[in-house]
Amino acid sequence: MARTVKMTETKALVNYDEELAKQAAAAAEQEKNVGGGSFFSTRAGVLSVDGQSLPGNEMAVLIVDGILENVYYAGKFDPDELESPTCFAFGRDEADMAPHLVVQQNGTAQHATCKGCPKNEFGSSDTGKGKACGNRRRLALLPAGAFDKKTDEYTPILDPAHYANTEMRYLKVPPTSISAYAAYVKQLAGGLKRPPHGVFTRISLSPHPKKQFEVKFEALMPVPSEVLGAIMARNKLEMTQIEFPYQVAAEGAVKKAPPKTTGRKFTR
């Protein structure tokens, strides 16, 4: 006769659960800076995502968060080679920025800190009087509506679930457009008393005689109260995630992760 085995929860099993929970938290902490993100492209002055250019070279977005990003490429730029920086750093205060831990571990840090780094000085670029290290902004964006093709009228997305769950996309504001973004942030703070994540924004690319192109920022409307709670929560979460590093290969080659294709598309 088959023997019946009664499964009971023991104290030992409970202790295992507690230990596994601790180990899970430790594993998550270890991997918190490993990941990637889908970036918009501004190559040749064309705003695109996943290889598709955006109608009107513009988009309506919510700027969920933004950080300073310094990036240095040891070699010349090759449009056919998806190469990431040799050295890079992120931060919210220029004075405190230093090469990312990934860069330090890879042995490609150009200096102990960004301040005082020879590559971060004007005149260090191989061409012109600029810096060899590009000072940029990394912006975390969510789609926030669409424009009517004929009237240019803006229709916002007002679904809290959209701002809570939609995949984040990222945009690098080039050095030549940092002043435009800084002016926009100051305008919002002074006029509307709001940070970028408190306003729906039009981001567009326009030709420029000296810079090839420039990134422009325009306030569309303040974020209404019905979606502000979801956005505030998303901003708080994104502040812990936006500094994800570039992926560094063992031999020192740095490659960007391939773009993701999920999530709601940005449309005009």
Radius of gyration from the alpha-carbon trace, in angstroms: 22 Å
Low-confidence blocks of residues: 1-10, 27-35, 254-264
Count of beta strands = 13
Distance from N terminus to C terminus (CA atoms, Å) equals: 72 Å
Q: Tell the overall outline.
A: globular
Order of helices and strands: HEEEEEHEEEHEHEEHEE
**Count of the domains:** 1
Secondary structure: helix percent: 10-25%
Structural class: alpha+beta
Number of helices: 5
Mean pLDDT across every amino acid position: 83
Percent strand: 25-35%
Largest sheet: 7 strands, mixed
Written overview of the protein:
- The protein is an alpha+beta fold and 268 residues long.
- The chain has one domain.
- Helix content is 23%, strand content 27%.
- The chain has 5 helices and 13 strands.
- The strands form 4 sheets. Strands 1, 4, 5, 6, 9, 10 and 11 form a 7-stranded mixed β-sheet that branches. The protein has a two-stranded antiparallel ribbon with strand order 2-3.
- A hairpin with a 6-residue loop joins β7 and β8.
- The relative contact order is 0.20.
Which SSEs are present, and which pair or pack?
Layout: H1 11-30, E1 38-39, E2 48-49, E3 52-53, E4 58-72, E5 87-91, H2 101-106, E6 133-143, E7 145-147, E8 154-156, H3 160-165, E9 169-173, H4 178-192, E10 199-208, E11 212-222, H5 225-238, E12 247-248, E13 254-255
Parallel strand pairs: 1-9
Antiparallel strand pairs: 2-3, 4-5, 4-6, 4-10, 6-9, 7-8, 10-11, 12-13
